[in-house]
Amino acid sequence: MAYIGFLCLRSLYRDSVLYCFIWGWCFSLSIKSILAKHPIKGFLAEDEGEHLYSLALEQAHLGPCLEVGSYCGLSTVYLGCACKQKNSTLYAVDHHRGSEEHQQGEEYHDTDLYDAVAQEMNSFPAFRRTLRVAELENTVIPIVASSKNARCHWGTPLSLVFIDGGHSLETALDDCVGWSRFLLSGGILAVHDIFEHPEQGGQGPWLALNAVLASGEFDLLPQVNSLGVLRKK
Ligand code: MG
Description:
By secondary structure, this protein is an alpha/beta fold. Helices cover about 40% and strands about 20% of the residues.
């Protein structure tokens, strides 16, 4: 009798693993087809996006996820699809006025995203289009505000935080330290553009990630491309 019970449990376990694998694979395919049909401007590499998707998929049942620096919504699609799959929510924080490097005359300025009447950057229309084409309007809650303003009355515990906002040391440090306080135990802090050496890129996010790690409250997980990851103890 016990042996039959064991066989039933083993079969259920196998089925659930297989189910998760097939389900995850289908969703990953659907992200690829969304991005192929509707190219989204952004600076996230495919392996980084897929890793974000996997991390959110394992975290989102514990609580909502949050990203800082949505821009046109490329990372939002990866995180949002995982949250949708788990019936969770993604808060997407961005003032949509662009970071320092997006301003006129700077390296990553994009004239398509410049509002000539207001004479300011405005990535929000492109971001809303992304939510519509990816069918994420019931999963992603846009917060059109600076990271600091969005956080000042924040109280919701989070299962995953992804930081890709301003890249100066001051801003990256404020984002990483400030938002990681809201992570649940076991929650994930993922930070984009982690470059250990100055010749690879700016040092702000890397120094900010290491400042959080130095608190002793986090474990370092493997980095994927420039995506650094910590898990709260
Ligand atoms: Mg980035």
